[in-house]
Amino acid sequence: MSLDLSADVASLTEQLVNISSVSHDEQQIADAVEAALLSLPHLTVTRRGHTVVARTDLGLGERVVIAGHLDTVPLNANLPARLEEGILHGLGSCDMKGGDAVMLKLARDVTEPLRDLTFIFYEAEEVDSVHNGLRKLTVSDPDLVEADFAILMEPSNAAIEAGCQGTMRVDVRTTGERSHSARSWKGVNAIHLAGPVLARLSDYVAREPEIDGLTYHEGLNATGIRGGVAGNVIPDECVVEVNFRFAPDRSEDDAEAFVRDFFEGYDVTVTDMAAGALPGLDRPAAKAFVDAVGGEPQPKFGWTDVAQFTKLGIPAVNFGPGDPMFAHKQDEHVPIEHIERCERILKDWLTGESA
Amino acid sequence: MSLDLSADVASLTEQLVNISSVSHDEQQIADAVEAALLSLPHLTVTRRGHTVVARTDLGLGERVVIAGHLDTVPLNANLPARLEEGILHGLGSCDMKGGDAVMLKLARDVTEPLRDLTFIFYEAEEVDSVHNGLRKLTVSDPDLVEADFAILMEPSNAAIEAGCQGTMRVDVRTTGERSHSARSWKGVNAIHLAGPVLARLSDYVAREPEIDGLTYHEGLNATGIRGGVAGNVIPDECVVEVNFRFAPDRSEDDAEAFVRDFFEGYDVTVTDMAAGALPGLDRPAAKAFVDAVGGEPQPKFGWTDVAQFTKLGIPAVNFGPGDPMFAHKQDEHVPIEHIERCERILKDWLTGESA
After folding, report:
1. Does the complex come out with an ipTM higher than 0.85?
2. Domain boundaries, chain A
3. Between chain A and chain B, how many beta carbons pairs sit less than 8 Å apart?
4. I want to staple B54 with a disulfide (CB 3.0 to 4.6 A). Which of B37, B215, B337, B349 is the partner?
5. What fold characterizes domain B166-274?
6. What pLDDT, in 10s, does the model give residues B74-114?
């Protein structure tokens, strides 16, 4: 499977969507992206796992990172891509192959940028952060990530979304006692004990704090549940997997304390944690980009890797095609107009020209 | 792995326990049992899958079936066997390799029975009844199952337990709508919707009807739960696997109606059903055996294959070593004294002699 970078950005998005790339299965798409970038003589290409980096080295005073992940959530009967009335449907179309296509077009076309450019196409963003390709890169090759400003092309309606919410995962575990289900009264059913855990989750009321003029929206949800030994055994363990999305005014410690308090009386194990990022729109580099794009910045609800850049002290925003409301949904889709708008705005800003 | 039938019944039980035979993995134990039986010239041996049948053909007026399953529930850190102060511990010791060992000893030693004998060692009793080796045999070789009376060596404290409760399995399904967990309020969480299902199960009060002087005890339990798409997706489906154990005064239709009514408002799918068996102690063949054994018959809570024999019109009882309360428990065990008592009582009854 090879990519045709001379195609328009909409066709290129469709090509990317049609290379299935569920997390942990990104070899094929990374190979295609790497091969396409290697054909561009003005870029230096580095590969780490299924993460591909392409950089200009023009010795300009500033450097901008533009980043996008290559993986998607699992298939949900939503491939191959389907173009209909200016909307491209299909797994990954919104989150975030529209953004990846813009990056590939910029990588090909912007040969004389005002600032040096680093394009990072990375693996495993949709799974536990320990697998995250960008996080790994900051450890293995910190110099490849260095920049004065970062743009993450996560879906944000082709407008700037600032900051991001944090995300943590916990296992909430109930413990009972096994017995034969024909004599269930001799055991203690751990799945039944999980009922009140689910009831608490149903009763949860989300906090919606305002930060730097942007209104965030937290969320606490079971994303998985498992329990059971055999069809005739009273189960002695049930685990509810919970995801807490928290506003960027909470630290990781605050978030953990909230969740432990919420599930008081239950065995809670933290399995994953990624801090959020404050909007940071007061930083000069961010301000300049906001002015260039125009419009009103919005809060970012989803955790994105802007938090990784924030942690490195690099100002970062989300700016990408697609409505994030449709990310991870069966009918995921992206308006072609969004993709084209992002391509145009970034090209203008990176070259200092107006189309 | 070969079995030594000249060993005493306790050692033979230990040999059987140490051949792991979790359901669907009975090849090794069936091979060993088959080889041991083939060494006995007074028996005709037939194998079907991992079910082994051995019969005398002496042309006597009556025939007795003695049956036991070879499989166990999953391992729970309870192998190998361990003998301690007259108690044999280990997976399958109680349910029901003590009974299987008695059968093997009788098969070897009772060469001149009063009634013709059929020993049935069968596979896959601890899983969905569609896999049950005895059920399969009644279809493939009904003549091998024919008899005037059947003794099932399920654990029953070396006393007679009569009848058995029925068992049915259902999936109770909740349906929501997927969304990204960062925008959970845009989806509907199917796992949260399962909370009230678990609450109903917790509130369930068991019926304990008296039938033919025996008191049964029903049970309704989640034996499994599953739900979840990915760690950052609001799940659109959750399935609670429920097992209903019902007293033998309910028909399969009654049982299904009860469960559907209990989970009214939810999507209920029946996945497995096996009717119970009324005690049937008024039948002459059963009565004669009860008199020979002595003591007070008890109700059988667990579903056992006496129901299969009942369906074929063959009077049947449960009579085997081990306390069924410990079946499927981590500390499963069987008193050696039970195993020896069952061997002695059956030998006396089958030969008409007293030791």
Report:
1. no
2. 9-164+277-351, 166-274
3. 227
4. B37
5. Alpha-Beta Plaits (3.30.70)
6. 999 999 999 999 999 999 999 999 999 999 999 999 999 99
